[in-house]
Amino acid sequence: MDVEVLILGSGYSGVNVYYNIRKKGKLIISDSNEFKFYTSLWRNNLDTIDKIYLDFVKTDSIKDIDIKARCIKSAKLGEICAENIIIALGCDKSKLIATMRDILKYNNVSITVEDPLIEYLGLQFAFYLKRLGKDVKYYGNYLSMLGDKVSQSVQALMEKYNIRSAERADIVIPSCEPPQSLGFLKVNERLELAKGVYAIGDIIYGWPKLGELAMREGVFLGKGINKGVTKKFNPIFIYILDTGFGDAIHIRSDVFWGGTFQSVKRSRIRSFMKRFIEHYYVFRKGNMGFLYYL
């Protein structure tokens, strides 16, 4: 089978590249057609997760990827070759989620993260633990990779809600794990691995594992493939850190990628905005839409 565009994976990045490609000869394959919105899992204390089913996703398991030939082999469809292959296979969060569930058993705990690339998640979880009435401490760098302004604002917010700084951590939240056969993948400024082969989302080596960023990559690449990918992708870290008490800060920064831009805005409106975004993505079946431009 030959197609114009083959997308592997149907997470945040995969579905958004699919939505934005206008070519008719596109195919998206994933081992599941469930789209899971992980923000709801953290907010619901790992009890329930918002998910929807995507009827345009072909469920299949990928057995082999030949990057040079731009072909794959799958269990059901067999060999598929494409003009463009987009690898959006994400990373395995099972150990991360299991550790966070284990943390919920404790009333007094100090936590940290294994990898700064998921530190936003450790900070968010600390606030949700505090909302449950737990005595929680945090050991880490408070998103210093995003710049001093961001780091200082995050630390001040945690101090306000009595989440104290720890000298060490009782429990370390592990990072997600890449597909064993591929590992994390290094890309160039156009998100390209090789001619006609791209990687987006959490599978990118050395980049934050962040849903908003993954969606943004998908939108960029989808629009680029329509015209021929020539532009540079300009990554930016955007996240609303919610206290769980009706207060939140909206973080924007490109410092991690060598930029100088930092913006931190705090208000109750940001907390409502986070709820709106969650409902919006479920309603839109993961389609970033106009939020790409905010």
Summarize it:
This protein is of the alpha/beta class and 294 residues long.
Number of strands: 17
> Do you know the CATH architecture of the largest domain?
3-Layer(bba) Sandwich
By CATH, the topology of the largest domain is: FAD/NAD(P)-binding domain
DSSP helical segment count: 7
Number of domains: 2
Based on secondary structure, the structural category is alpha/beta
| Helix percentage range | 25-40%
Q: Mean pLDDT, nearest integer? A: 96
Low-confidence stretches: none
Beta fraction of the residues?
A: 25-35%
- Radius of gyration, in angstroms, nearest whole number: 19 Å
The CA-CA distance between the termini, in Å, is 39 Å
Question: What is the highest CATH level, the class of the largest domain?
Answer: Alpha Beta
Polypeptide structure, described:
This protein has 294 residues and is α/β, with parallel strands linked by helices. The chain has 2 domains: 2-44 and 51-91 and 178-227, 3-Layer(bba) Sandwich (FAD/NAD(P)-binding domain); 94-174 and 236-293, FAD/NAD(P)-binding domain. The protein is 29% helix and 27% strand. The protein has 7 helices and 17 strands. The protein has helices spanning 12-20, 38-43, 94-103, 119-131, 148-160, 211-227, 268-283, and strands at 2-8, 26-30, 34-37, 50-53, 58-59, 62-66, 71-74, 78-87, 108-113, 135-138, 164-165, 171-173, 192-194, 197-199, 237-242, 248-253, 262-267. The strands form 4 sheets. Strands 1, 2, 5, 6, 7, 8, 13 and 14 form an 8-stranded mixed β-sheet that branches. Strands 11-10-9-12 form a 4-stranded parallel β-sheet, with helices on one face. The chain has a 3-stranded antiparallel β-sheet with strand order 15-16-17, sandwiched between helices. α1 (12-20) runs parallel beside α6 (211-227). The radius of gyration is 19 Å and the shape is globular.
